[in-house]
Specification:
Distance between the termini: 82 Å
Strand order of the largest sheet: 4-3-6-7
Largest sheet: 4 strands, antiparallel
Strand content: 15-25%
Number of helices: 14
Radius of gyration: 25 Å
Oligomer: single chain
Length: 532
Amino acid sequence: MLRRRLAGWCTAIVLLLMMPPTDAEPPPLQAQGYDRHVELRWQGLHQPGLQYQLAVSVNGGNWQHRITTTAASALDFVGELGRNLTLRYKLVAVKDGVERELARARAETRDFSDAELLEMVQRYTFRYFWDHADPASGWAREREPNEKDGDIITSGGTGFGVMAVIVGAERGWITRAEAVQRLLKLTRSLREFERFHGMWAHWYHAGSRQVFHFSRYDDGGDIVESAFMAQGLLTARQYFDGDTAPEQQLRREITALWREMEWDWYTKGENVLYWHWSKSHAWRMNHPIRGYNEALIVYVLAAASPTHPIAAPVYHEGWAGWDNKTFRNYRDYYGMVLPLGPADQMGGPLFFAHYSFLGLNPKGLRDRYADYWQQNYRHTRINRAYCIDNPYGWSGYGENFWGLTAGDKVPSGYAAHAPGFLRDQGTITPTAALSSMPYTPAASMQVLKNLYFNHGKTLFGPMGFYDGINLSVSDKPAEQVRKTYLAIDQGPIVVMLENHRSGLLWKYFMRDPDVRAGLQKLDFKIDGKPIR
């Protein structure tokens, strides 16, 4: 009897050991193949201080060394090994010169369709807002890495992140319930952080939750960054429309925050909105928001407020004055007449066509000044034509390598890149063309494929494309890339790729009754019809 029981136990143990790992127990070495790269992870095996080597066998061939790292993950770009590969990976730990094999894994690469490439880029970029957000507050970090200022979180980038979370829930990368819980964490922190007449500061320090000055006198309310936050929150208020208690609570909290935003305070009683107010420096920044830039959404939301609205003349006399040289344009560039934007920059950086239009749908949208689809379409095409023209002779510029917008410069610094002298310094920012996908899908896809297929080994990282690439600074690929991530560049990639694919964020933001009331007040029309 005892012998039979022991035999049964042994059989059970053997069967248990033979069972494949469950979702809760991932294999020690995970290998996921894509089109031209494989992502490898070994978090459960990782030990600080150890060096790890990865070798690969291609289609059953000999082992060849690929990567040496001290991290717990790596991307292996395998394009030079061929396409549609079957790969075996071997992970080896090295300590004091002694090698020890830890695990093996198998992966396959295959040619991706355009839709699969878009999904891949979106999902990688989404990690910036889901995996790398501040865990205590749910806010997005300003940048990764941030060696200069420490752990800084950003209000505008967090608003973009709210919209990215909606995309994640819709695409099934996270569950709807997970998205709601993350956003409830965020709305709680939004109430706890210091506000300035209902507006948030541009930056806060993640640890202390205290305002971190963006510049010397900019340590208070920033209505442009706050508008980007509100754009995301109002989209979430419409998207999470379920009857569950958490979704109802989320809508209530968003509505309360929205109603407390005092847009009219930021006019100083004049017919224009002012960008900043500080309790220490009052209106010292003295920055009226005039002319065409990224702030159209500010005026739309200020008019839309159910509690602290601006009057229509604030928009028409402050923002949209015809005598403002940075508003009216109507000049011809490369055979295209551009309605709005600074003339000396051919309309300005491409984020002018992105930030306000993450939620605001430009299709058929017009007022007395412009057709906003044509504005953004032409702005993008002019930016591309300028790069193809390449008046300053920067390396690589062309049909598959264009896009000037705000971002990190290569090799250092930050700039609002745009056409023209000094504004164009040879750095192409991937978010420029990718976030313009709704306007120029074929041309933007050319850029995506070039950046991934030809520069991915240095430009594509754990959270998607790095922030900038400049082929003129060096003939060494590793020195041509600025390996940073910025929230304000990552967010538009996720959101605008989704608007291209499904119109998701446009659909829900434009559904909001307050938003529609604000557009109606400012005399906008959609497809030539009054907004109701």
